[in-house]
Design a protein that fits this description.
Order of helices and strands: HEEEEEEHEEEHEE
Distance between the termini: 18 Å
Radius of gyration: 16 Å
Oligomer: single chain
Largest sheet: 11 strands, antiparallel
Number of strands: 11
Structural class: mainly beta
C-alpha cells in the first residue's frame, strides 16, 4: 500500500533531479508517527531539488543530501505548473492525496471536476528519524501558496522564472491507520499532525541528487 502511494511523489531516474540553493522550514509542534515520534519536530532542511516533467514538477525539501531512503524530507508534487503560474500565484491552493489513490477494500473516491481537483500533493518522509519503521505521512488536507514557481523549463535562463517560493500549512497522517473499508484520507483526527513551513530556492540544472530504482 505504501509503495503504491509513493509512486506519484517519486522521481524517475530518466528525468534526473536538479539541485538548488535555498532555505526553508518544515515544522510541527506535535508530530505523531506510530512507534516512532510523538513530540515537536523541526527538520531544518538544507537540500532542495526539483524535477520538471511536462506540466508537472516534483520538489524535494530535505535535511542533508543523502539518499531519500535514509533521510527526512518533504516531497511535493505539482500537477500543473502552467495553471498555477498563470492563474494561481498568491492563492491558497488545496493540498490532498493524488486522485485515484485508494486502499484495498475501500470505496473508490468520487471524481471531482477538473477545476476543483487539488493541484498539489505532499508527503513527509521520516526515513532517518524512523529508519526501522518506514514512516511516510501524507497530507490529507491543508493549503499551499506559491509566491513564485519555477517555469519547468530545464533550459530556463531567466532567474525570476527559476525561482520557487512557497508557504504551506497541512495536516498529515499515515494511511495505514485508516479503518478497513474507509477512504484513504479518512485517517482518525487524533492521529493527524499539523505541519507548517516554507521553501525558497532557485532551480539549478545538474546531475541527479540521488539514484532512483
Amino acid at each position: 500500500m505504501i509503495a503504491r502511494l509513493l509512486v506519484p511523489l517519486a522521481c524517475a531516474c530518466s528525468l534526473g533531479c536538479s539541485l538548488g540553493q535555498g532555505e526553508g522550514e518544515v515544522y510541527s509542534a506535535k508530530l505523531r508517527a506510530k512507534a516512532c515520534w510523538d513530540s515537536s519536530y523541526d527538520m531544518r532542511p538544507d537540500f532542495f531539488a526539483a524535477v520538471p516533467y511536462r506540466s508537472t514538477l516534483q520538489i524535494r525539501v530535505q535535511r542533508g543530501n543523502d539518499l531519500q531512503e535514509v533521510s527526512d524530507g518533504l516531497s511535493v508534487l505539482v500537477d500543473d505548473v502552467d495553471v498555477i503560474r498563470d492563474q494561481k500565484l498568491d492563492v491558497d491552493l488545496s493540498v490532498a492525496l493524488p486522485h485515484g489513490v485508494e486502499l484495498p477494500g475501500s470505496p473508490p473516491p468520487e471524481p471531482k471536476p477538473r477545476e476543483l481537483a487539488p493541484l498539489v500533493h505532499m508527503a513527509l518522509y521520516l526515513q532517518r528519524s524512523c529508519h526501522n519503521q518506514n514512516i511516510v505521512l501524507y497530507a490529507v488536507r491543508g493549503t499551499i501558496k506559491f509566491q513564485a514557481l519555477f517555469s519547468g523549463d530545464p533550459n530556463e535562463t531567466d532567474a525570476a522564472d527559476k525561482y520557487t517560493d512557497a508557504t504551506f500549512d497541512v495536516m498529515v497522517g499515515d494511511p495505514r491507520d485508516v479503518e478497513p473499508g474507509r477512504p484513504a484520507d479518512a485517517i482518525p483526527e487524533e492521529l493527524l499532525s499539523r505541519v507548517t513551513g516554507y521553501f525558497r530556492f532557485y532551480f539549478e540544472r545538474g546531475q541527479p541528487g540521488q539514484p532512483f530504482p
